[in-house]
Amino acid sequence: MTHRLYRNALLGLPLAALALAGCNQAAGTMGPAPRVTQASAPAPDTAGQVATAVAAKLNTQVGQAIEGGVQVLGAQAEGPNVVADFGVPIAGAGLTEDERAEVGPLFTDALRSGFCADDTAQTFFDLGNTLRVRFQGSDGVDLADVSLNSCSG
């Protein structure tokens, strides 16, 4: 039963990740992210500025329910890294050891699938940014800590 619940909660993760993808244009100030090549490497603070904008955009969505019951709990920029906390409607304490082992890879795949559906997602990574999402169960138990640094698996 619990196994089915966390799989159902994953249905909301691609939508949550798409919300993240739209953060590259935070507050209308960033515009579409430029394509980066080795010859046009970004200034050192560009990745940090993008991370700050993404975290700020995510924080405007705190407490809003996303499909599947997923919620943004908060986000912050740590240099070029965005660290976001998401709540999922699953009690982590009720998961078996086998279910816990499946959660991380499932959440990683769902997050990558949703986030990378946006055309500017790979540019976000090309700038040197990373996305880390910590997933917390409805009972406050940590379920997974997922980090992405590219759109390729």
From TrEMBL:
Residues 1-26 form the signal peptide. The lineage of its organism: Bacteria, Pseudomonadati, Pseudomonadota, Alphaproteobacteria, Rhodobacterales. The keyword Signal applies. This is Lipoprotein. Keywords: Signal.
